[in-house]
Design a protein that fits this description.
Pfam families: HTH_5. By secondary structure, this protein is mainly beta. It has four helices and 20 strands.
Length: 299
């Protein structure tokens, strides 16, 4: 489950703000249990137990089903990621670019792979040739088991402007046929041949529906990713604020009209678990690949 600091996440925070409900989650992490079993383990009445279960179900942390006269509860999530808003004072001017995820300029992917827009799949699944389908520009989600996709980041800087820092933001997960909440994948991101770092995705998530994922996509297919933030500065590169490579901003050639952004799952990665990229109208963040170019004016 991917959360942010917003009103939509409050039910989850409220559900977790109780030692009893935390204990219920711990019990359900081991087995499916009915109300009587939970009530006995917790040492509270069935009525109070049901009230706590209702809170957890409202927050989509558990689900319940009727088996005869019994209400049996199951834990539906195993990971919660909380994205805090980042506020950083940067004394530079900036240019913002949002690149649609279907606007890649080169690729070499292996199945499982495919593209989807708000209405359905684009072309046939698991056939890399359809990554050249003209409708790919409409894609809000793409996935591949191995290989890479590349994008061109336009360089809008003028001759009298100096590149000071560059930030990237994109929603990613692993790729597994349908989905697998525990499926690690090492996803490497580079810019113009300079590695910015590798992030290990913990899974390909379907424990809850993506906030923007269209209704036509089955619930057992990848629903959302985790928003990753990369930064290149004169101190090196970071992923979510943690040092990820020695690539510094002065390594980026500002005489070029664009820079190549590569998102890859390498053949020799420790965890070859594919990659899913979420864009507009999919996942939990209605965005493409957000790029912010920070610059200063030169005398």
């Amino acid at each position: 489950m991917d959360l942010d600091i917003s009103d939509e996440s409050v039910p989850v925070f409220r559900a977790l703000a109780s030692p009893v409900r935390v204990k219920i989650i711990q019990l359900l992490s081991k087995d499916k249990l009915n109300v009587s079993q939970l009530s006995k383990a917790l040492g509270i009445s069935s009525t109070i137990t049901i009230a706590h279960l209702n809170k957890l179900e409202e927050a989509h942390l558990i689900q319940s089903e009727k088996k005869g006269n019994q209400r049996v509860s199951t834990l539906t999530i195993d990971t919660i990621n909380v994205n805090f808003p980042t506020k950083l004072y940067i004394p530079f001017k900036n240019l913002d670019i949002d690149i649609p995820i279907g606007q890649y300029t080169s690729y070499d992917v292996a199945p499982t792979c495919g593209l989807a827009d708000s209405k359905g799949f684009i072309g046939k699944l698991d056939q890399p040739g359809y990554f050249m389908d003209p409708k790919r520009y409409q894609a809000g989600m793409l996935w591949f088991g191995q290989g890479f996709v590349e994008y061109q980041i336009p360089n809008y800087l003028q001759k009298n402007q100096a590149l000071e820092m560059l930030e990237l933001s994109l929603e990613l997960s692993s790729e597994f046929p349908f989905s697998n909440n525990n499926w690690k994948s090492d996803i490497t991101i580079s810019l113009d041949g300079h590695e910015l770092g590798t992030w290990t995705s913990p899974g390909d998530f379907s424990d809850t529906r993506g906030r923007y994922t269209p209704k036509w996509l089955d619930e057992d297919m990848n629903q959302y990713g985790i928003l990753k933030s990369l930064r290149i500065s004169n101190h090196g590169s970071t992923i979510d604020g943690k040092s990820s490579s020695d690539t510094t901003i002065d390594m980026i050639d500002t005489s070029k009209s664009s820079w190549i952004l590569r998102i890859a799952v390498k053949d020799d990665a420790e965890n070859v678990g594919g990659c899913t990229i979420f864009g507009h109208k999919f996942g939990n963040h209605d965005q493409g690949i957000k790029t912010t170019i920070y610059y200063s004016d030169q005398a």
